[in-house]
Specification:
This protein has nine helices and 18 strands. It is an alpha/beta fold.
Length: about 325
Amino acid sequence: MAQSRISIAVDSGQLVLPEGQVLAFGFGADDDLSAFSKDSTIFVQPFFPDYTALQRRGYTVTTEPEGAVRVAIVSLPRAKPLAREWIAEACRYASGGLVIVDGQKTDGVESVLKEVKKRVPILGSMSKAHGRLFWFEAADFSDWNHGAGTNADGFQTMAGVFSADGIDPASKLLADTLPAKVKGTVADIGAGWGYLASRALERETVTKVHLIEADKRALDCARSNITDERAEFHWGDAPTHKLADRVDCVIMNPPFHNDRKADPEIGKRFILAAARLLKPSGQLLLVANRHLPYETILSDRFSHAQEGAGDGRFKTFVASKPRRI
């Protein structure tokens, strides 16, 4: 694990952290956290795998901060709207204190620094390891925090959640081609803000839909978008999440990026999870970008698997009767 810019700045004396409570936004369990005291740091982390991993390392973690702190630190996310929101929240909770922003150049830290410079004096800055650390006195950035809002298609979303601006075209393709005979209990794994689940619930033959989502912010939006009593919401890591009973059908548009890099292994883990969650006669309905190589694992884990509707960008699959391995 490489030493973080925060640790380097603190160890070199460039940055002096005030005594007292620290609020840290967006850090993961794989980050260098040596600059953070377990006694005085509260991590804000809505992503379930990182939330639980930080807890296992003995840190205090929350999804909803409260109370005032002396210093707030933001690990810059890729999504600029979410970066703005977290900086605004950092300023709100550290009012009169210190706000520190750390990020990679590929995630836009330099442009964020330019925007912040237009509003407040920068107290210090350090460039290292293809990224930058900078800090300033907390000020009013409330206009950067837009909270939840309604997208162009009428659904509630939030900054930084997948497909925040509107319905994802791949999900729409799958939803428009869901078989009429979908019935019983359905699981939407990687449910996001609830679009696929909402379409499944249009069928009276569906008795329950489990929405499983790792991003709590997206899941909170899904709760607002879906008020049907047949919906059940689960904050958890889709590839490992367990349900009390197996389901009749799994629907999904799995993620396939790890940061900026395409990683088909993520989707493959979702397929393995679907096979585990399904009844012996159950069915998986999946949409994916056309270049993703899911055919082999579908054939390995299901007795029947075939490609369904698609277009130049996306393909759908229908797979049934999971094999128990």
